[in-house]
Every structure is written in structure tokens, then in C-alpha cells.
Specification:
The structure is a single chain. By secondary structure, the chain is of the alpha+beta class. 37% of the residues lie in helices and 28% in strands. It has 2 domains: 76 residues, AF2212/PG0164-like (Elongation Factor Tu (Ef-tu), domain 3); 54 residues, no CATH class. Strands 1-2-5-4-3-6 form a 6-stranded antiparallel β-barrel.
Length: 152
């Protein structure tokens, strides 16, 4: 796996990536592992105006005392791991009742799965949790299945 180490100036909360990400890794916005000032973080490359950037979260800028114009040494590599979502038992119980629901859940993007799981997990009252599970199931039922490639 190719790692790229470079120094970039902090500009508007982002670092410009000095190589053609799409040509190098086959995708313009790949998930990456970033090593910055001794810390490891997972993020995604951004594309603006034909240039590639890594956004640095405000909390990370504050934690690392990064300011506009600072030279920042960063080491990045493609992250091909599949992120795991901790699904609350109430949501799991509702999803496993149907193959269509399980398929819809797996077809859903990582971010959407994470948001639904968090919404259910953070509910304090049982009735709120029940409503959120019902809303998640309704969203899964409304989701159109991904098209499978045609067999030849």
C-alpha cells in the first residue's frame, strides 16, 4: 500500500494533497488513514477546483495547536478496511426479521448505518427507542435495492 509523506500549509482548515489522488489510488475521494503530529485519524480526501485536500477538523486543529499558514507534516495511505458500526440490539432484532431489511441495511452507506445506529443507541426512553427503530425500518423499506450487475 502506497504511503505518501508530505508537508503542506494549513489553509482554511485544510491541507492540499500534492499528487493526483485519482491517478494514484483510482478514486477521487478515497477513505484514508492520516498520520499527523503523532496521531492517527481516518478521513476522506476532498476535491475542490480540481485539487485534492484533507480537511482538518476544528477540534483536531485546536488539540494540535494548528493555525492558518502552519506547515504541517502529514503521512497518508489508502484505507481499504470496512468501518464497523455498533448496531444496538433493538435495531438488530428488527432488521434480522427480513432478508430484504438485512439487504437494505448492508446496501446503506456506512454513514447512514452509523447515523441510524447512533439515533437508536442514544435514545433514553424506551418509547423513543421504539419510535427510532420504527423510523429506521421505514427508511429501510423505502430504500430501493441496489442494481446487481447483469450476468453474462
Amino acid at each position: 500500500m502506497d504511503r505518501h509523506k508530505f508537508t503542506a500549509k494549513m489553509r482554511e482548515g485544510a491541507l492540499e494533497v500534492p499528487f493526483d489522488v485519482k491517478a494514484e489510488w483510482g478514486a477521487a475521494r478515497p477513505q484514508i488513514r492520516m498520520f499527523i503530529m503523532g496521531e492517527r485519524h481516518r478521513t476522506r480526501i476532498m476535491v475542490y477546483g480540481g485539487k485534492y485536500y484533507i480537511g482538518i477538523w476544528k477540534h483536531l486543529q485546536e488539540d494540535l495547536a494548528l493555525s492558518e499558514g502552519d506547515d504541517v507534516e502529514v503521512d497518508i495511505e489508502l484505507d481499504e478496511s470496512v468501518p464497523k458500526v455498533d448496531v444496538p440490539p433493538e435495531l438488530v432484532a428488527a432488521i434480522v426479521k427480513s432478508v430484504k431489511l438485512r439487504t437494505a441495511w448492508e446496501d446503506m452507506s456506512y454513514t447512514h448505518r452509523k447515523e441510524w445506529a447512533r439515533a437508536v443507541a442514544e435514545a433514553k426512553k424506551p418509547e423513543t427507542k421504539k419510535k427510532r427503530v420504527a423510523a429506521a425500518i421505514a427508511a429501510l423499506k423505502a430504500q430501493k435495492p441496489k442494481k446487481k450487475p447483469a450476468k453474462r
